Each structure stands twice: as structure tokens, then as C-alpha cells.
Amino acid sequence: MSIFTPVSEQELARHLEAYELGSLVKLEGISDGIENTNYFVTTTGAELVLTLFEATSEADLPFFLDLMAYLADRGMPCARPYPDRTGHFLRRLNGRPAVLVRRLPGKQAMRPSTAQRRVIGAALARLHQLTETASLRRGNDRGPAWWHPIATHVLPRLAAAERELLQAELAAQATLDESMLRRSVIHADLFRDNALFEGDELTGIIDFYYACTGAHAYDLAVTVDDWCSDATGTFDAGEARVLIAAYTALRPLTDAERAAWPLLLRRAALRFWLSRLHDLHFPRSGVMIKKKSPDRFRRILECLHGDDAALRALLG
After folding, report:
1. Domain 108-313 belongs to what architecture?
2. CA distances in angstroms from 149 to 55, 57, 155, 251, listed in the order given
3. Domain locations in the chain?
């Protein structure tokens, strides 16, 4: 993601001495994203991604890394972290907690095909099936308790129509209790840029650093909102049906999940609209920053208002 903490080749070469990964060949910064510092790393023994954690609580990091290892060991195509010579995944580099993970093959499906949407729906269902049997648990730090102070921060910066939309949606979301829905660890950020493909084969699910215990149907809504809308935020109901059908073929939705579905779709759009509004109006400094416009998720939220029956019809 963005480069907040520079790392030189000399510094990384010293860091690599703690691992059995060979010597450094190449170091390349990654500019996509907004939360952590990431680099592509090539050594004589491996192709890696180096992540330095900038804002994530260090106490949460073992959860993320253990989750990635758990899923990779059970056949999910996700990046397994590399342990150092003492068996630990996490070390410090330039004052930041740092991890090295396997770099997965493939490319992001930024213009996904129908087949790729079908594959990602099935993969998400499989992820939920696996985490239902895991002992891992973590609270959602981008849930309702986070929305309200962020909304207070950004509201004065918004146009009148946006303020009205945000306040109305916060009020509507207060009526939904996710704890009544089927839950386990969810990805919570399975956007197109967090999945890698070779053709229509899924080769990697990446960036688990928002993973938390949450509602499966909310995780599905996050994925549908991103994968089934275009760059302007216009929602594609036909492609949404494809992705949802692939998911529900493996993990059918309950009656409670179906009833909550319209609010969950809007909840997902609200969460990412708020985070991007905050990043736009209160940016963090870094060497290489890529900001993401909040407009797309505002437009998605607007598209999802109106006909709840049509949104439930997406579920088949």
C-alpha cells in the first residue's frame, strides 16, 4: 500500500538475516492503498511482500497472521506469512511491526468477468465455512462504534445533500443488530484489488488486515458492493445475482440474513464511504500516497436506496 515508512535496501538486507529466505535481490514500493507500507521483495530464495504496519494495533497482528496461516494450511489461496528462524511471524523494522508473506501469482481483476465474480462468491463462502470451525476471534474496529466519531469529523466538510444522506443512513443502520446473524471471522475487505487471478482461476486472496468476527452476510454485502458496481458506483444487479448464487450454492442464507440484506448492502457502502471521506479530508502523510475517492461509495449507497424488495430479489 502507501509508503509511510521508507526502507532502504541496506536496512532490508539486515532484516532478512533473521530469516532463511536468501539474500536481497530487489526491493520495490507499492503505491496502492491507504493504510500500511508495502513493498515487493525478491530474494535469492523467494518472492515476497513486506508489510510494515502503520496504524493497526500491534496487539491485533498475531490474529491476522494466524488467520492467514490457518486458511493457507487448509487450501485457501492466501499469502502465508514466513516465520523467522525462531518461528515468529512478526518482527520490527524501522520502528514498525513488520511481516514477510509469500507473494502470490496473478493479477487484480479490476474489470472482473462474470466467471471471476462466480469464483469469488464461492471462495468467500468457503472462507466462511473454514472460519466457523476456527477458535480465532476479533472485534470489528470499523463497525458502528467507529462510524459515529468519523461521521462527526466529516459532516462539516460535506455538502447539504451528502450530510442528509449520511445522517439518514446512520439512523437506518441503528435498527439492525448484526449479532442476530450467522457469524464467524470474515475478511471484511474483499474488494477486487484484494483478489488475484490468472484467467478465471483465483490465485490469491490478500490483505486480511480488516478481518474480524462479523456477520457472513455483511461480508457478502461488502464483496457484492465492490465487485458488482462500476467505477462511477452504478450497481449491476445481474452480476450481483451471479456472485450471490455462487456463494449461496455453498452456504445458503438464513431467513434473518435475507430480511437484513438491503440494510447490509447499505451498511457496507456506508462503511467505505465514511473511511474514504475521512482519508480525503484528514489525510495522513507519506512518501507515496494514493487516495481513493469517496464518491463511488456515495453513489453505491444512493443506488441501494428505494426498493428493498428488488434488493432481496437478488438473493434468488
Report:
1. Alpha-Beta Complex (3.90)
2. 17, 19, 10, 35
3. 9-103, 108-313
pLDDT, tens digit (0-9, with 9 covering 90-100), for 103-134: 999 999 999 999 999 999 999 999 999 999 99
- Residue type at 151? A
Percentage of the chain beyond pLDDT 90 is: 90
Cβ-contact 192, 116 below 8 angstroms: no
Could you tell me the pLDDT band of residue 292, with boundaries at 50, 70 and 90?
Answer: confident
Same topology between domain 9-103 and domain 108-313: no
- pLDDT tens digits for 242-288? 999 999 999 999 999 999 999 999 999 999 999 999 999 988 765 44
- Closest-CA residue to 273 (of 299, 253, 254, 291): 299
- Residue 290's pLDDT is 58
- What would be the CATH architecture of the domain defined by 9-103? 2-Layer Sandwich (3.30)
